[in-house]
Design brief:
By secondary structure, this protein is of the alpha/beta class. It has helices spanning 124-139, 145-162, 174-186, 193-200, 204-215, 219-235, 242-248, 254-265, 269-273, 288-294, 313-330, 345-349, 363-373, 377-402, 426-434, 474-484, 487-490, 493-496, 506-509, 513-536, and strands at residues 11-25, 30-35, 40-46, 49-53, 56-60, 65-68, 73-78, 83-98, 101-107, 117-118, 280-283, 301-303, 334-337, 354-356, 406-413, 416-420, 438-439, 449-452, 464-469, 500-502. Strands 1, 3, 6, 8, 9 and 10 form a six-stranded antiparallel β-sheet that branches. The termini are far apart.
């Protein structure tokens, strides 16, 4: 059974087409800020770029559909020569029959309780075609015009509803959606899985299987997440006791609520209430302390148990001992650690409560998670928005300098030379997707990186070489000299053209907002130097 628009009954709500427009803009199209005055659907007909909705950044591309609730704030920037979209504005009308007569009133909101954000759908071309047909009808003046356009609107909305997709590309099951709406409305009450299955019209076992396939979690886990998310909102309100919050979201037992909350969030409710006042330390290879700094919080101590700078074993152990002593002496309220420090978890936990972040490819998840732990969610959104717009601007600037020239990143990492690939790493995504640089063919297309002995490095057939030396220790310098003695190095277009560039640790920096800004600073500096030397005819040898 699919969602259905209501029939005219004693009380009904009907969506009506308020307005429709087609927007076409040229290169560097930018929306600096506006507020949606009524519910809208936005369909991207051509172009790609960034769409920021209520400070949350989304990538936008051709044929993508967005839902915009009333009051949504919008910022946008295009990275295409032409950007075109259709904006469809909806006005929900409530019809009520009173004493034999119909009354009409406007109501806020969208049909089917859709919410602001991208809406993945099947059959994108069919939806584009239906939008186009409705727009043509909207512009027409034929007889029965009003009936025609609103009939087409209802058919379009119904078609979208029937072809909505979950994030995992599974088709939205309206039966499951009904059970989810019940969870939202009654989370403060006792809810049995049998009752949810009955609402969905399925047996309990079929309901559980279907739910997990669609949502990547069990119904019980989903309900717990809803309750914990609501609890987090209530805990930020003044004069709310933990006991009252627990009861209001459906946990009659305060002890059980504390356990479930800490399991989901990583800290107890009592700590969550004062999270913006906590003294935070980090244990990190990926620069978690830089995430904190970007959020306006300075780590009181930081430890890196995996120093990779080639010191002797005794030097490394001495440095690590100093870090551990400083960590203990700082007496943190909370330690945030990355997955590399899982072997140290028990030792860290003996010093202070410790949250071990899962390893993820999307560095933004770490930023948002850390922001939640220190009460800086709004700052995290602002950071991501600023970074997205700057990345778009820097991409345009780099295109002027590098044009279609090929780039390759090399790391001197004794005992091997590492060629950085084009997938599965935040740096690769930044360079080749966001900044649109062109990778050389030698960059491994199916691996994060490939290691080579210096004497067996393949021909560096690239126009620009970005080289990071792990350290200035003798082993790194010796390895670099050996690579420079090969024909693969000396026949490289980058070497012959004087386009070999020393860089800082981009691989590590690509995991944080501040680090990504620094990478772009270096790239802009390299590009400007390259352009200046090209104009003067000078060649700088590495």
């Amino acid at each position: 059974m699919n969602e259905q628009l209501p029939f005219i009954a004693e009380t009904s709500t009907l969506p009506l087409l308020s307005s429709m427009c087609r927007v076409r803009r040229g290169e560097n199209f930018r929306v600096h800020g506006m507020t949606v005055s009524r519910p809208m659907l936005c369909l991207i007909l051509q172009g790609k770029g960034i769409l920021v909705l209520n400070d949350e950044v989304h990538t936008a591309h051709t044929n993508q559909l967005f839902v915009l609730e009333k009051g949504t704030t919008i910022e946008a920037a295009s990275r295409s020569e032409i950007t075109e979209c259709i904006l469809l504005s909806i006005n929900n009308v409530s019809l009520q029959k009173v004493r034999g007569e119909w009354t009409m009133a406007s109501e806020p909101g969208l049909p089917f309780q859709w919410s602001t954000g991208p809406m993945p759908v099947r059959h994108e071309q069919q939806i584009v075609s239906r939008f186009e047909q409705l727009y043509t009808a909207y512009q027409g003046v034929q007889q029965e015009h009003f009936i025609n356009i609103h009939t087409q609107l209802h058919e379009l909305l119904q078609y979208i509803s029937e072809n909505r997709l979950e994030v995992n590309q599974e088709k939205v099951d309206p039966a499951l959606e009904r059970s989810i709406m019940y969870m939202h409305r009654h989370m403060g009450e006792g809810i049995s899985m049998d009752h949810l299955a009955k609402i969905a019209g399925l047996t309990p076992s079929s309901y559980s299987r279907s739910f997990k396939k669609a949502k990547d979690m069990s119904p019980t886990d989903y309900l717990n997440r809803l309750r914990i998310d609501e609890a987090k909102k209530q805990l930020q309100q003044e004069h709310r006791s933990i006991k009252d919050v627990a009861e209001s979201v459906g946990y009659g037992n305060e002890y059980y609520f504390n356990r479930k909350f800490k399991q989901a969030v990583g800290i107890a409710p009592s700590v969550y209430i004062k999270r913006d006042q906590l003294r935070i330390a980090t244990a990190s290879v990926l620069g978690l302390e830089n995430h904190l700094s970007s959020l306006g919080v300075e780590a009181i101590a930081s430890i890196n148990g995996f120093n990779d700078q080639e010191p002797s074993e005794s030097e490394q152990q001495r440095e690590l001992t100093l870090q551990w002593n400083k960590l203990r002496q700082s007496r943190p309220d909370l330690i945030i650690a990355d997955s590399y420090h899982a072997p140290y978890y028990d030792k860290l936990k003996s010093i202070a409560p410790t949250i071990l972040l899962e390893h993820v490819q999307d560095w933004k998840q770490h930023h948002v998670r850390i922001a939640e732990l220190v009460g800086r969610e709004k700052q995290a959104l602002a950071n991501l928005k600023q970074l997205a717009f700057r990345t778009l601007d820097v991409a345009r600037r780099l295109q002027q300098f590098f044009d279609h020239e090929r780039v390759t990143l090399v790391e001197v990492k004794p005992p091997m030379i590492r060629l950085q690939g084009t997938i599965n790493h935040p740096l690769s995504h930044l360079l080749y997707t966001e900044l649109m640089l062109k990778p050389a063919q030698i960059a491994p297309p199916e691996h994060q990186w490939v290691d080579y002995p210096a004497e067996r490095i393949p021909l560096l057939d690239t126009d620009h070489l970005f080289i990071h030396r792990l350290s200035m220790h003798p082993a790194s310098e010796k390895l670099l000299r050996r690579m420079k003695q090969t024909s693969s190095w000396n026949r490289s277009p980058a070497v012959l053209g004087g386009n070999v560039h020393d860089i800082s640790s981009w691989l590590t920096k690509s995991w944080t907002p501040s680090g990504r800004h620094q990478i772009m600073d270096e790239l802009v500096h390299i590009a400007e130097q390259h352009d200046a030397l090209s104009q003067t005819g000078l060649i700088v040898q590495f």
